From TrEMBL:
Pfam families: Wzy_C. Its main location: membrane. It is a multi-pass membrane protein. Keywords: Membrane, Transmembrane, Transmembrane helix. This is O-antigen ligase-related domain-containing protein. The keyword Membrane applies. GO terms for cellular component: membrane.
Amino acid sequence: MMNIVFTQVLIILMANISWSIQFKTVLKIMLVFFHVALFLSLIVHFKTGGTLSFGNHTMTGRLGGLFFFAVTAVLAGFASLISFYLVLINRRVIYIISLALCIAYLIYTDSRSVLLGVIVGCFIQYFFNLKIQKKKTTKTIVFFIVFYVLYRIYSAYNLGGANVEDDLEFRTKIWSTALLGIYQEPYLGYGDSLYFLTNMNYALKDFYEQLNDPHSSYLALILQSGLIAFFMLFYFLYRILKGMVLKPNIYNLFVISLFGFWLISGSTGGAFFNLNYSLLSVLFNFTLIALAFHPSLWPTNSIRIKEVGLSSEKHENEGNFKSINIL
């Protein structure tokens, strides 16, 4: 419980700081942070015996470094979307180089779900950018087909991880264990208990004893908080996205793409949507609160607030004027 409270307090403090800074400046600061973290991860990866290989990667072949490889993949994916967005609105060479580096890091982590999330995110950005500029959005079909073909080529030559990890039977066991737990406590979940870790040791005791999530952010959230919290969160996301999609602008198209990225990436890994104090959870919550509610994304609300402020100030001045006349 204290993990959840601490995480949300941290997010609120970070949001207050970010709301006082221009939206693009916030993204540039985040991009610098990601590049530093990814570069240090690359150094640590080699220092700890990691290899530079491509194909059927083992755990030593996947880029992890400072973090577990799945965490590094999400950081590279998030940075890729920021870089693509900056290239889209300001085609400077430095952002193109940044995008190329981030994609290289991402491929090296060998996370297919995160890579697919990045492709979907870039597709969303490109589509809404054309829509805002009132150009033909049919170009996005060609854009998506090209990226998807490249993704399929990557998947064909890069099977990912140890053989057992790529086996459908392995993932079926993980998800069936999670579904059994959800069936037993469907509404409120297990809180911060170690239900999954405890039960996985019996289901897959020969592999990944440290595995403590069901390789799905959706299942992880339901296990922790139950179906009630799950539907509340996604209804909240739906309301936010609906407002952005109906009135897209140059700022909120990026946040729309981020949510697409999270929804795809979370399908086969991590515990992104849980409110526990972890790097990916903080990053998701930062997207949900600090970026999604940045003043730049809701210009009509800002104008309305200003109008209300001016109106109240006008009435206050009129009241003062009347009181002077009475005196």
